[in-house]
């Protein structure tokens, strides 16, 4: 039987994937053609969505971007037998954009049906969990892999896990931070919608490793499809014995649940997220104590983001060395980069650390969508620095970006061409902070508001040098005095915009 794959990912659905799927099913039924229609996750090539794949026994052939208006012509050109068509892309695995990636965390996304546990296992799923159940030192294996937190800080996951393992507590928790709020980031959502069992498996391994028996996935409320998919996958996992009092028939217990976020960007900060999980207003907690020692409900808690936890099954399945062999220096393994903004080929690119920003933008991103030269690139979300065109040779790893005055963050890369006004971008950073501040500390709450006012005076040409000096002083205050990264990192994009782009060029 011919299998037809149409993505059920939110991005594909937003541009007509559901209608494409319905039309394919209706056309086949009317013609008396027996097909199996599967809704997979997106492959991440967002410029090719809706990406339709056909498997008639000779591998999967891709067509895209398919719109509802293209369905009749696909059938007319016999696409079910890999017929030629203007939208034909050949064999999916031979598409250069996909073939040149190194997908570890995203290895099954776009391949399987998200809620099929049998397909998940057939493609290597649960092997890591089975290994963890008998492994003498899971924490040591994760530590040896070099895995660092993919949420922004880049803290070694194994050290965090070891702290929780060694902490005293009658109850311990694993919390997944899926409050993906950075502009230009969407990898967490795509993985939860496209391969939810990878996250479940990763969290179960974490629980077994540190002695935690319960977990929470904190998903931003703006991700209703991800919430729905994760809830369904958890139920499937419970029925199959992947979760519960006897994980895969062992004497280990682990279960979890989904909690919807409260709509605040600050809840992406781990302690504010804990406050929200406990039913309180999402405001940052002072540290110490560290959440690993006194976290959720005052208990030792592992907190990692989606991509960190979803990397663990592969580490346990293939061994720490396999993961350690990827990447460079202290940045080991792969990173899921997200290309967005003024980019010709936006989407998910997973590859080892060390690729240059220039290669990422040109080889994978295809340059700007407008065809105009790149003027600036923001790496690491709205609190990340703006890099200029002469900085694009920087390697995409933690240390190289830090040396360039930037940060990796969650792996978001937003590209701007020559039309962007960088002083306006500096203003946006302050405006964003003013809108999203939790209000707990004065440097962030008041500083961002004053920052917008000062930049407005600079834009208006009022005492420019005096106000530039004032803005720099304000940035120092926010960096040194803010309680968390919301206020502490806001000066990073502001200063980078002012340093790398002359005022006479940007103040128009």
Features:
508 residues, alpha/beta, Glutaredoxin, Ubiquitin-like (UB roll), 5-stranded mixed sheet, 23 helices
Task: Characterize this entry briefly.
By secondary structure, the protein is of the alpha/beta class. It folds into four domains: 2-99, Glutaredoxin (3-Layer(aba) Sandwich); 117-324, Rossmann fold; 329-415, Ubiquitin-like (UB roll) (Roll); 422-506, Up-down Bundle (de novo design (two linked rop proteins)). The longest helix is centred in the C-terminal third of the chain and has 18 residues, at 464-481.
Description:
This protein is α/β, with parallel strands linked by helices and 508 residues long. It has 4 domains: 2-99, Glutaredoxin; 117-324, NADH-ubiquinone oxidoreductase 51kDa subunit (Rossmann fold, 3-Layer(aba) Sandwich); 329-415, Roll (Ubiquitin-like (UB roll)); 422-506, de novo design (two linked rop proteins) (Up-down Bundle), CATH 1.20.1440. The protein has helices at residues 10-14, 17-31, 71-76, 96-99, 117-122, 127-134, 138-145, 157-166, 187-194, 196-210, 224-239, 270-277, 306-318, 320-324, 357-364, 398-403, 422-436, 442-445, 447-459, 464-481, 485-489, 491-500, 503-506, and strands at residues 2-5, 35-38, 52-55, 60-63, 88-91, 173-178, 214-219, 255-260, 301-305, 327-328, 331-332, 334-341, 347-352, 374-379, 386-388, 412-417. The strands form 4 sheets. Strands 2-1-3-4-5 form a 5-stranded mixed sheet, covered by helices on one side. It starts with a strand and ends with a helix.
